[in-house]
Amino acid sequence: MNKWVKISLSVLLVILIIFIISITILKIFSSKTKEEEKDKSAYNLTSVNVMKELDLYEEINNHEYSKTVEVLLESNNFKKEYLNYYYDIEYKNITNFSTIINRLLDKNYNSEEINYITTNISDNINIILNMDYINILAYKDITNFDISKIERYLSYQEENQNYDLATIVTYVNIGLDKEGYSEYTTYTTEEALNDLTILVNKYHKLPDDYEPNDLVALSYNSGYTYTLRREAATAYEELVSAALLDNVIIYPFSAYRSYNTQNKLYNNYVARDGVKAADTYSARPGFSEHQLGLAIDVRSNTLLDNLTEKDYEWMLSNSYEYGFIVRYPKGCQHITQFMEEPWHLRYLGVELATKVHNSGLTYDEYYDLYMK
Questions:
Q1: Does 341 fall in a domain?
Q2: Residue 255: how many CA atoms within 13 Å on its side-chain side?
Q3: Exactly one of 113, 289, 341, 365 is catalytic; which is it?
Q4: Which residue from 275, 279, 262, 268 is spatially nearest to 208, judged by alpha carbons?
Q5: Is the pLDDT of residue 279 over 60?
Q6: What separation in angstroms does the CA of 76 have from each of 71, 88, 93, 182, 274?
């Protein structure tokens, strides 16, 4: 090999070494620069790159770190026009979070509303996504609000604009936006036997064959035997004795009634007055509290099937102390869906009856608000 060839090879080798060193230095410098950029940002590298592409690096990093912003940047769902909203939206670990946030913002929900939705109704967000904007925060302090009924609330509100929103929610939950008996749930025999507080009305039914297993006869002797479940019967005897001390004399005129008895009674009323009228004062078979064995109709000693005004007032003011409430009080027909029945008492137990009495609510309302 001649001298010039050796020199050329040496030069090439030097150039190659210099090139390799340069590339290595550039890589080190580039890596260092990226690390420095990452060190200056609380966001991950993917988010940083997207910020730069959108020319938002300085703006976002000058703001307090937001997990929501980072997730939106990472997911390629980031919308520049919503940046200020993203800052105030709390990140939630829910499926399709970034897509949901944008869809809600597209519907004109603000950050506060979105935080409420993702925190309180995350399992039912699709209901909101499939509707036009609604003032969702108007419901946030209504404890018995049920998002699955939102369309019913809105519809009932349009028809009853004199009611406040809390009343709308309770009435719809009871079922008052639907015709009585059109939709109802049926208890099991076990539920009816084991729970003295169950709600029976036009939307909650007892099994046709339900019969209490602890019926006992009341001490009142008139040639007809009236029965109640044992606990209610004991409480009723105490109620009668307490009333007598205040010169209030009451007698039973109806207590436990079987499904078949109620069926005959209701059909007789229908034959006499028609279905529409009968439904205002008589429960259909299976929907009567009397079948529970926890309801009793009482009368004053001067009347055949009612209480005097004085005796009614005593009952309103005192029956709860013995576990009973006046189930269909005056002025509440629009809620109970039965005409007022001052004589109809329902046993709940002293503790619950006291709470219902103190609330000033019908049992239908109280049950939905505090027990369901």
A1: yes
A2: 22
A3: 341
A4: 262
A5: yes
A6: 9, 19, 17, 49, 66
Residue 339: give its domain's CATH number: 3.30.1380.10
Residue 152: both structure tokens together: 């019913």
Rg (CA), the chain: 36
Burial class (CB in 10 A: 0-12, 13-18, 19+), 355: middle
Cβ 185 vs Cβ 204: under 8 Å: yes
Q: Residue 368 carries which DSSP code?
A: I
Domain stop point among 123, 140, 157: 140
Q: How far apart are CA 329 and CA 339, in angstroms?
A: 9
Tokens at 75, concatenated:
């997911």
Q: Which domain holds residue 114?
A: 65-140
Amino acid at 96: N
CA dihedral 174, 176, 179, 183 (to 10 degrees): -20
Residue 290 lies in a domain: yes
User: At residue 142, does pLDDT exceed 60?
Assistant: yes
**Which DSSP symbol is given to 292?**
G
Read off the tokens for 96.
Answer: 């399709």
**Interval 32-48: pLDDT, tens:** 454 444 457 999 999 99
- Residue 133 phi/psi, 5-degree rounding, is -55, 135
Tokens representing residue 259 in the block: 């499904």
pLDDT of residue 128: 97
Active-site residue, 183 included: no
Q: Alpha-carbon distance 231 to 294, whole Å?
A: 9
Distances (CA, A) of 72 to 33, 51, 125: 25, 11, 18
C-alpha span between 342 and 346 (Å, rounded): 11
Query: 125 and 250: one domain?
Result: no
The mean pLDDT of 161-172, rounded to a whole number, is 98
pLDDT tens sequence across 47-62: 999 999 999 999 999 9
How long, in residues, is the chain? 372
